[in-house]
């Protein structure tokens, strides 16, 4: 048998050309798929950034959306009453014998900050940094913002009354 017959099991030039065409087409299809995937990824990412910029949220979309709280300034902090623990424990409505922030027991000479909205007490050095960042009580999360005057509704039916 002669190798020129074409039946000897040896690849001919025509067979090799067909094989290389198949490889070329396969590589072209893979390249096209990768290009489409990368293009869609970058286009959708830019579109999300544009939507966030229109909404005024410049943060990336992979972070959780949070509302930014702004605490009190120094003048407002100074308007909250300060009391000595020795005087505060004489009141009947004082609850707690330790600071909920640092968990240290109060001493008779400790200066405490009384939050007007809820009546909770904290060490001044513990609660002031919190109130500079957050406008709420660290325990009950009631707003600690002082109100200039009470409304008629709160005079008629108080929303919250302390236990007596």
The quaternary organization reads as single chain
Which architecture of the largest domain would the CATH scheme give at its second level? 2-Layer Sandwich
Taking strands numbered 1, 2, ... along the chain, how are they ordered across the largest sheet? 1-2-3
**Roughly how many Å apart are the termini?**
114 Å
Low-confidence stretches: none
Protein name: RING-type E3 ubiquitin transferase
GO molecular function, one term: ubiquitin protein ligase activity
Catalytic activity: S-ubiquitinyl-[E2 ubiquitin-conjugating enzyme]-L-cysteine + [acceptor protein]-L-lysine = [E2 ubiquitin-conjugating enzyme]-L-cysteine + N(6)-ubiquitinyl-[acceptor protein]-L-lysine
EC number: 2.3.2.27
SSE arrangement:
Elements (H helix, E strand, L loop, with lengths): L12 H42 L19 H6 L2 E3 H4 L22 E4 L6 E3 H10 L18 H5 L8
Antiparallel strand pairs: 1-2, 2-3
Describe the protein:
One of its GO terms (cellular component) is membrane. Keywords: Membrane, Metal-binding, Transferase, Transmembrane, Transmembrane helix, Ubl conjugation pathway, Zinc, Zinc-finger. It catalyses: S-ubiquitinyl-[E2 ubiquitin-conjugating enzyme]-L-cysteine + [acceptor protein]-L-lysine = [E2 ubiquitin-conjugating enzyme]-L-cysteine + N(6)-ubiquitinyl-[acceptor protein]-L-lysine. The chain has 164 residues and is mostly helical. The protein has two domains: 12-66; 74-156, Herpes Virus-1, CATH 3.30.40. 41% of the residues lie in helices and 6% in strands. The protein contains five helices and three strands. It has helices at 13-54, 74-79, 85-88, 124-133, 152-156, and strands at 82-84, 111-114, 121-123. A three-stranded antiparallel sheet has the order 1-2-3. The chain is rod-shaped, with a radius of gyration of 36 Å. The N and C termini lie far apart (114 Å). The mean pLDDT is 75.
């Amino acid at each position: 048998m002669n190798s020129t017959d074409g039946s000897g099991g040896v690849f001919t030039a025509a067979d090799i050309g067909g094989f290389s065409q198949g490889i070329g087409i396969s590589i072209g299809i893979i390249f096209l798929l990768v290009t489409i995937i990368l293009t869609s990824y970058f286009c959708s990412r830019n579109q999300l950034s544009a939507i966030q910029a229109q909404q005024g949220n410049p943060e990336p979309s992979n972070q959780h959306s949070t509302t930014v709280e702004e605490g009190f300034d120094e003048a407002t902090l100074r308007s909250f009453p300060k009391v000595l623990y020795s005087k505060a424990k004489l009141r009947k409505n004082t609850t707690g014998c330790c600071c909920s922030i640092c968990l240290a027991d109060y001493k008779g000479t400790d200066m405490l900050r009384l939050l007007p909205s809820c009546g909770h007490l904290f060490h001044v050095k513990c609660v002031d940094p919190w109130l500079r960042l957050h406008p709420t009580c660290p325990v009950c999360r009631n707003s600690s913002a002082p109100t200039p005057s009470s409304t008629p509704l709160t005079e008629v039916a108080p929303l919250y009354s302390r236990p007596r």
